[in-house]
Amino acid sequence: MYEDTNANIVGTNEIDFNTVSGFNSGIAIIMANTSLATAYGGICIHDPDEDTYYVALQCHDANGELYYLDLRRDSVTLDAYSDAAIQSRFETGSDKLAPLAHAGSKTSHNPSSLKTDFTLPHIA
Question: Which of 51, 55, 72, 92 has its CA 20 to 30 A from that of 79?
Answer without folding.
Answer: 51
